[in-house]
């Protein structure tokens, strides 16, 4: 069966403007243009649109979707299985958050009481969800799916005592880093102490530690503007300083 832009938009519940934009950026071209100048889409294009909408539902950028779909090794069946797995996971996450909202509403109305443990479980889930939304695809590509899943599992198993510890440790890293930056030498005792504190902080989230991985994430603080902006918010150059201190600490750069 063939569809015009209008009919395909109605079928997929998206605007004709979106379909025209997909055509302009080359992510979804029509099968042909008829004699009247209308875009015509066939079964292949409908399947492609389904894939695009699956990825969009998972907050994947259009640039990344285009790169994935135009890859010669793209396999539709494997992609669908992966979509299903991710959607099931997302559904479980939403079910957990909805349950917490329902409990909170009930608490507000005086119907039930939510334990501190239940509140904390929902909070940990929110940390993972936010991290997945911001960096999910990138960190999986860089570190592998299993590594990220183990890290998420470690967060979910974190006790309130451990959370308090890692929160205090994060504050220590920030304070120590500011003092080390004033010193100006990434090889100084205080800078190396900061790198060690940073390692201890990571171990609350990582299932395994390696000097290579530690150095790699330190480099990310400079390469990724989001991390750079976080570390440089008070003093420009702090991200690069921390990177250098960690590279020396891990032996990846000589003093």
Brief write-up:
By secondary structure, this protein is an all-alpha fold. Helix content is 72%, strand content 3%. Strands 1-3-2 form a three-stranded antiparallel β-sheet.
Give an account of the 3D structure:
This protein has helices spanning 5-12, 16-24, 43-57, 62-69, 76-108, 116-143, 145-156, 160-183, 189-202, 211-223, 225-231, 238-249, and strands spanning 3-4, 32-33, 39-41. It is an all-alpha fold. It has three domains: 3-69, Orthogonal Bundle (Multidrug-efflux Transporter Regulator, Chain: A, Domain 2), CATH 1.10.1660.10; 76-156, no CATH class; 160-249, Antibiotic binding domain of TipA-like multidrug resistance regulators (Globin-like, Orthogonal Bundle), CATH 1.10.490. It has a three-stranded antiparallel sheet. A hairpin with a 5-residue loop joins strand 2 and strand 3 (39-41). The protein is elongated and about 75 Å long. It starts with a strand and ends in a 6-residue tail after the last helix. The mean pLDDT is 83.
């Amino acid at each position: 069966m063939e569809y015009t832009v209008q009919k395909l938009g109605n079928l997929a519940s998206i605007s004709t403007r979106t379909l025209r934009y997909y055509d302009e950026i080359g992510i979804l071209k029509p099968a042909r243009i008829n004699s009247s100048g209308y875009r015509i889409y066939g079964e292949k294009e409908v399947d492609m649109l389904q894939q695009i909408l699956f990825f969009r539902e998972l907050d994947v950028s259009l640039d990344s979707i285009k790169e994935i779909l135009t890859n010669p090794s793209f396999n539709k069946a494997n992609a669908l299985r992966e979509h299903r797995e991710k959607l099931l996971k997302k559904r479980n996450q939403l079910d957990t958050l909805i349950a917490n909202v329902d409990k909170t509403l009930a608490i507000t109305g005086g119907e039930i009481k939510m334990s501190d443990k239940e509140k904390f479980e929902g909070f940990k889930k929110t940390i993972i969800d936010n991290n997945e939304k911001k960096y999910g695809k990138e960190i999986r590509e860089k570190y592998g799916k299993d590594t990220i899943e183990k890290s998420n599992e470690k967060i979910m198993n974190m006790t309130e005592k451990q959370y308090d510890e890692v929160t205090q440790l994060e504050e220590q890293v920030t304070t120590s880093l500011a003092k080390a930056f004033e010193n100006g030498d990434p090889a100084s005792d205080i800078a190396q102490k900061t790198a060690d504190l940073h390692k201890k902080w990571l171990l609350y989230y990582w299932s395994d530690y390696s000097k290579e991985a530690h150095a790699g994430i330190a480099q990310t603080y400079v390469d990724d503007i989001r991390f750079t902006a976080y570390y440089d918010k008070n003093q420009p150059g702090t991200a690069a300083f921390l990177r250098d201190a960690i590279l020396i600490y891990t032996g990846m750069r000589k003093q």
